[in-house]
Amino acid sequence: MRKNCLIKIPHSVCRYTCMVNGIKDVFEWKTGLKLPCELMMISSGMAGFSYIKDKRAKPPAMVFWGPSLKVQYKNLGEIFGIDVKIKNEGKDFDSGMSILKNSINEGNPVIIGPLDMFYLEYRKFFMKAHITAHFVLVIGYDDFVRRIYLYDCDYEELKSLNYEHLKNAWKTDERGYLRKNAVITFSVSKEAISLKELVRRAMLHKANQMLKPPTRNFGIPGIRKLSREFLDWESLMDEEDYILALQNLVTFANVPPTLSKEIDNFTARRQEFSKLLKKLARLTQNPELEKVSVLFHKSGQLISKVCHIIIDNLDHKEDKREEIPELLLSIAKIEERAYKLMERIYLYENQKDRS
């Protein structure tokens, strides 16, 4: 039985994209196609919208600016042809390690998580703060020194983690992500595809999910629904749940997810999407994407305004919550315009290519 193995692959830093960064590394390694930093993260669902209502949950109404991780991974399959499988979720550490080692022995890196950064030796939060829902790409292990070898989306160099710290970090259940000891295995399609075609496929997929979601609690319809119901939250929830619901909305709009005003990037990844579209306009020679970029910059500014109104209220400063429904409606209108424009751009381009 093998006691160690290390797969050598290239790695690129793309901050705050931990759930997909390792998959992006392997995709680029196997296809030779270089992707813009945020393309996989955003096209798989981030910079989206989910309004979850469950009377048994705490709080009973929750806003997320993207889908669940399992939906993200499903989207990767539909867009990039990546077959993602989640194994060992909620099971024991030893069986997770067995899957990890077997996959690496076969030449296939794996994603593991969610991890608690409190136990990650190479992070500044080590033994200082419990920050959960982190994911890394594992490319090797060594039973002799009892360490795994990994790439982290925030660091260029190869990192390592001893088995004991890994065991503690990996025992994390995280709502909306995965349960403890999950191993994400994946295989990349060998289909030859250009960046231009991949971007077209990704943008049309995203537009369809936001304009025509499976239920009206998601996408553009979900933003409109929240605008109608937001002011009722306070009377429908007890004080603790109401505060939690407000905090949740704001936290997941920030990149990375935090209530910290020091970071102050409460745009729900719309600013990152706007910058990505500018880059894609240049890389794919499609200047029309610049117009879509401007619209997402505007919606990001309005989302930030919503978040700061809520933060001021939580800090017992001025109360402008009555402005939020109209702001949410404006966000929905702007993003509806953006996605319809995106559809026109790519559907027209598709017709032009066929003629």
Question: What would you note in describing this structure?
Answer:
There is one protein chain. It contains 12 helices and 9 strands. The chain is of the alpha+beta class and 355 residues long. It folds into 2 domains: 138 residues, Cathepsin B, Chain A; 160 residues, no CATH class. Strands 1, 4, 5, 6, 7, 8 and 9 form a 7-stranded antiparallel beta sheet that branches. Strands 2-3 form a two-stranded antiparallel sheet. It starts with a strand and ends with a helix.
Throw out a few tags for this protein.
alpha+beta, Cathepsin B, Chain A, 2 domains, 12 helices, 47% helix
Unreliably modeled segments: none
Query: Approximately how much helix is present in the residues?
Result: 40-55%
Q: H/E series, N to C?
A: EHHEEHEHEEEEHEHHHHHHH
Give the amount of beta strand, in percent: 5-15%
Number of domains: 2
Cα-to-Cα separation, first versus last residue: 58 Å
State the major sheet.
7 strands, antiparallel
Q: How many individual helices?
A: 12
Number of strands: 9
Quaternary form: single chain
Rg estimate, integer Å: 21 Å
Overall shape: it is globular
Mean pLDDT: 95
Structural class: alpha+beta
